[in-house]
Amino acid sequence: METFTGRLKQGDVLFKVSHCSLHIGDPFVHGPHDVGRAAEEDEQEKLSLNAGGKRVARAKNKPSGNVGLPSGDAAWGPYKCIASTCHCGASLQIKQKVVSKLIDLTGVHTVDVIPKQCTRSTCRTTYGYNYFWDDGRKISCVRYSDLKEGVLFISSKRGFTLRYLKYHGDLMFRGVLSAKSVSWAYRRSFADSTQKGEYGKDVTDDHHKAHNDALLYFIAMQELEPIGRHTKMEIGNELTQATVTAYSQYLHNRIYPHKKAKNVTVLVGDGHSKVLTRCMGGQTPKRVGRPRTRKRGRKSGFTNGWFMICEPQSGRVVTVAQQINPENNDDVEKAFERAIEKHPSTNTIVYDRNCSFAPNKSKNIKFKKVTAWPIDKWHGERHTKKCKYSSKNNATYKRRLRDVNTSICEQTFGWFRGYARILNSMRSLRNCFLVFYFVRLHNVLIGENDTGYLNEYATRPKRQRCGKYSCSTKKKKKM
Fold first, then answer.
1. How many Å apart are CA 46 and CA 70, to the nearest integer?
2. What ranges do the domains of the chain cover?
3. Collapsing DSSP states into helix, strand and coil, what is residue 338?
4. Nearest-10 Cα torsion for 205, 210, 212, 216
5. Which of 67, 160, 329, 351 could form a disulfide with 150 if both were Cys (CB 3.0 to 4.6 A apart)?
6. Domain 241-287+295-447 - what CATH class?
7. Are residues 329 and 356 in contact, defined by beta-carbon separation less than 8 angstroms?
8. Which of 42-51, 102-111, 249-258 shows the lowest mean pLDDT across its residues?
9. What is the C-alpha separation between 409 and 41, in angstroms, rounded?
């Protein structure tokens, strides 16, 4: 072994570790952390080679809920503004840091957020972590894939971790929990009566409002990306009528239809009036006919629920239509037209009001392939013995529906009605958006055979509350 007796100069190589060289007098070039990182990269390079020695491209995953989040007692933040250039094209400069509260499943954490500002004198727009200010409004300026650090801010003083939002998004779908219920549970778990300034105030004041805004922003950012409306959203007012309409059209054209649409021959439709939407402006739309009565607890200022069309074999919902007016033949016709357009082999339409719908609408050219108009078995019990559309009176329909689940809509409504207590109090646009979103999740879980959220049994005994149909005989009043 040779002994080194000369004088070391800056830049001379002393020894080599892995792929890095340690230089004398320059400890920040290749420190111990870089050595470990080099070894990690070397392992990743080995993992990225297949058995034949060819390089395999690694897929770029979207940020998960835990990306960028510290574990244990590690420090949180600081979180620097993601944007690098202003929307006007100028560069951004760093502003003074802001102390903010970050809501996580582990509690409330105090973090530093570093905003930026446009350098152009005629612009001077201020940028937060994931948004910029425009005439008093906070406009989103990032994509979901840009949230590498696993956090999302709705103001300069309030942020949420992605794992918190993902957890509560799934819990809202599965557990039907309102924002006030979440706020109450969060306060009971994390608010400390001895430290009201640190925990209590952030949890108790307006946590349910901030929770709702962050959750809708988080969901909309992901759901609206395929239609190009995920940016330029106003935080707290993410949705417009044009956005919800475009989202509905995208789902009905690309997502809702059955994967094997050409093999679908039977469609089942029915209306549901438990989940209601507030009317725009708070006024019930005008309609012809008798004045509306307030029986069955019907609230004024709301629409008349939703009409759904299901594919009975798989249980998928293929069409969702809002009922602005009470259930009528014209609106039902439009819904079935949309469904048949994507399922051209349909030859049977099951509907509880077919005795009045079929004679008027069966001549529609879009229904030329439909040869059977039966009534589902459950509602058919309320039709008269002379009704030719009821399967109990028509042997042909009875044979055709022998292996068909004609009550699929009623079973779907048994799950869907649970959302009435959280959706009926929301703004109309958020209500409609979440209905479309929940139906999409329902179809995804149906395809994955994950149906544990569907209740096999009724929560309470059902009463026969079917109304009269056009085939029913009208009783004459006694003089």
1. 28
2. 1-58, 79-227, 241-287+295-447
3. helix
4. 180
5. 67
6. alpha beta
7. yes
8. 42-51
9. 54
